[in-house]
Design the sequence.
């Protein structure tokens, strides 16, 4: 059984979310979990973690990414709660991850689990945005349970089509590119492309925070049309 230390005080600004799943970034030391964030429902905060892993630190919508990355960890421990049906959730998490980079799931209670998300998913905001979308999508009541078979299949399910988490263009893009969407430039893609940190302002922070799969699809279309 894990001991969970006190959560830090964070007042987050978040939009509504129908799915009840909530996330918290934690540091694990044996059976002790120390929360590094408050509970959050907006998965865009994971984009801020990608920024932090690339040495870009800021606060956005009340989320301070300064201390959410643990030095030496090749990934991220994430505590999740409000899981509808653990057997379905476990199967769906396993199905939608890249087979070469599986997300480890440890059941804590009937409605909570500890995930370890490998570093692979933090190379850019596209991967972590797609992963967390699919994990959230796979959280469903037993009475409505759909067992996913793969990332591609999950994106084509009725659940994905009616979910507001991705635009139709974003889903099409993710089905086409899978986990290996081509990289672009500037803040839409890999943060190592940034060159002048002194010029960053709040707009850049907003772009990073909101840089999910749908934005990647839009920017790719713009770049393709410009060729």
Sequence:
């Amino acid at each position: 059984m894990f001991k969970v230390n006190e959560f830090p005080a964070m007042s987050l600004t978040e939009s509504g979310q129908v799915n009840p799943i909530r996330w918290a970034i934690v540091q694990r030391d044996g059976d002790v979990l120390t929360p590094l964030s408050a509970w959050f429902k907006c998965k865009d905060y994971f984009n801020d973690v990608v920024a932090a892993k690339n040495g870009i630190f800021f606060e956005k919508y009340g989320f301070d990414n300064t201390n959410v990355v643990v030095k030496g960890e090749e990934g991220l421990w994430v505590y999740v709660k409000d899981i509808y049906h653990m057997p379905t959730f476990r199967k769906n998490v396993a199905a939608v991850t890249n087979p070469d980079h599986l997300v480890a799931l440890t059941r804590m209670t009937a409605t909570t689990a500890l995930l370890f998300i490998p570093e692979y998913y933090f190379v850019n905001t596209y991967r972590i945005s797609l992963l967390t979308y699919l994990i959230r999508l796979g959280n469903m009541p037993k009475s409505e349970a759909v067992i996913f078979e793969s990332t591609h299949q999950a994106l084509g399910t009725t659940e994905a089509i009616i979910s507001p988490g991705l635009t139709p263009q974003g889903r099409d893009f993710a089905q086409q590119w899978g986990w290996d969407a081509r990289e672009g430039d500037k803040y839409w893609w890999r943060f190592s492309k940034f060159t002048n940190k002194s010029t960053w302002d709040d707009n850049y922070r907003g772009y990073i925070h909101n840089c999910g799969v749908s934005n990647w699809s839009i920017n790719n279309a713009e770049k393709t049309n410009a060729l």
